[in-house]
Design a protein that fits this description.
The protein contains 11 helices and 8 strands. With 264 residues, it is of the alpha/beta class. The longest helix has 23 residues.
């Protein structure tokens, strides 16, 4: 029965994705040519598509904490812990934003074209020579009124803890003069079973996990409950090291580990 449900969800998800591509792919060439008017349209399309995709996946999200800071208009740099591609869907359902991901994801078959169609910005973390230009690109997006979301752990994890935040991209908020908003993502239950070491890999996508087999396993679940905890808005006048550390402390404070910390 579960396999039938998973293939039904695959078909529904594919339909949502097809509609998303119909809306966005014709605009991608304009984005690649540097049109600044296209990215906000792609962000809104991503937000709309994410609403339908999360319904197909049975994802329910509760937003708690400083909600006014999250939903208020105006650009901000939103920073979050990262466990899965599902994180993007959950955050995008709540408000349009430009997500930042790696050059490696851009070059991943399937995911790469989805990210481009979603208006993502890409950074090459292995090439520090380009970092200044990438920070400038993020700053320009925020100056233009777009919110930007980054995952400063620089990789997804198994949810045992929050990896240390990397500092460079926080400079974009300082350069643009926009506040930073820490967000904590928690996955609470899968089919009413609390998420822990035995079932966390249904959600968490990390390391060398194949994407297709992972999402097919995800489709077998009927209901997944998640939570977004909104932290306190941080001014861009703080020095970058302190801004990174305070953001990290806020995220860790509200994070619910999915298992014991790894043995060092």
């Amino acid at each position: 029965m579960r396999s039938v449900v998973s293939y039904f969800k695959l078909a529904a998800f594919a339909l949502c994705l097809s509609c998303f591509f119909i809306m966005t792919l014709p605009l991608v060439p304009w984005l690649q040519r540097g049109s600044r008017k296209v990215r906000p349209i792609l962000m809104k399309a991503t937000s709309l598509a994410s609403v339908f995709m999360t319904r197909v996946l049975g994802l329910e999200v509760e937003v708690v904490g400083e909600k006014d800071a999250f939903y208020a208009p105006g650009a901000r740099l939103m920073v979050s812990n990262h466990m899965s591609y599902v994180d993007v869907l959950l955050l995008a359902t709540q408000r349009p934003a430009c997500f930042v991901t790696s050059q490696e994801i851009k070059e991943t078959p399937g995911l790469g074209i989805i990210c481009q169609a979603g208006g993502c910005l890409f950074v090459n973390r292995k090439n520090r020579r380009n970092l200044g230009g990438e920070v400038k690109e993020l700053s320009e997006a925020m100056r233009a009124g777009m919110s930007v979301t980054i995952f400063p752990e620089a990789t997804s994890s198994n949810g045992h803890g929050v990896l240390k935040f990397r500092r460079p991209l926080f400079n974009a908020a300082i350069d643009a003069g926009v506040p930073v908003l820490p967000l904590t993502l928690n996955y609470l239950s899968i089919d009413d079973v609390p998420v822990g070491p035995d079932n966390r890999d249904v959600i968490c996508w990390y390391g060398d996990m194949p994407f297709f087999s992972h999402i097919m396993t995800l489709f077998k679940s009927k209901k997944i409950k998640a939570q977004i905890v909104v932290g306190k808005l941080l001014p861009p006048t703080i020095e970058v090291t302190e801004l990174t550390e305070v953001s990290y402390e806020q995220v860790v404070k509200h994070f619910k580990p999915l298992g014991p910390p790894p043995v060092s």
